[in-house]
Amino acid sequence: MKFKFEKLIIWQKAMDFGEELYKITKKFPKREMYNLTSQTSRAVDSIALNISEGSIGQTNPEFKRFMGYAIRSLSEAVTCLHKAKR
């Protein structure tokens, strides 16, 4: 059985982005495992999770609200990458 969100390109790309970030965070120093690594993983997971949750049986305003959460999580993940670079 396929869910509606599995057909969404944005969800597929969010899943791909998550896989790429996991590869990057594996290279973070061990001392960051419970801080930046954990925060980055939670943020990137939240992107796809919010897209999927918002697409299931919700109204358009509800879907837009969850897409807003996904965008906020994306900005959080990008900020984590900037922190890691610094």
Major β-sheet annotation: none
Radius of gyration: 14 Å
Structural class: mainly alpha
Tell how many strands the DSSP assignment holds.
0
Distance between the termini: 44 Å
Quickly count the helices. Answer: 3
Q: What is the mean pLDDT?
A: 94
What is the topology?
Layout lengths: L8 H17 L10 H20 L4 H26 L1
Helix pairs in contact: 1-2, 2-3
Task: Give me some keywords for this one.
about 90 residues; mainly alpha; elongated
Structural notes for this entry:
The structure is a single chain. With 86 residues, the chain is mostly helical. The chain has helices spanning 9-25, 36-55, 60-85. The longest helix is centred in the C-terminal third of the chain and has 26 residues, at 60-85.
Quick structural gist:
This protein is an all-alpha fold. It has helices at 9-25, 36-55, 60-85.
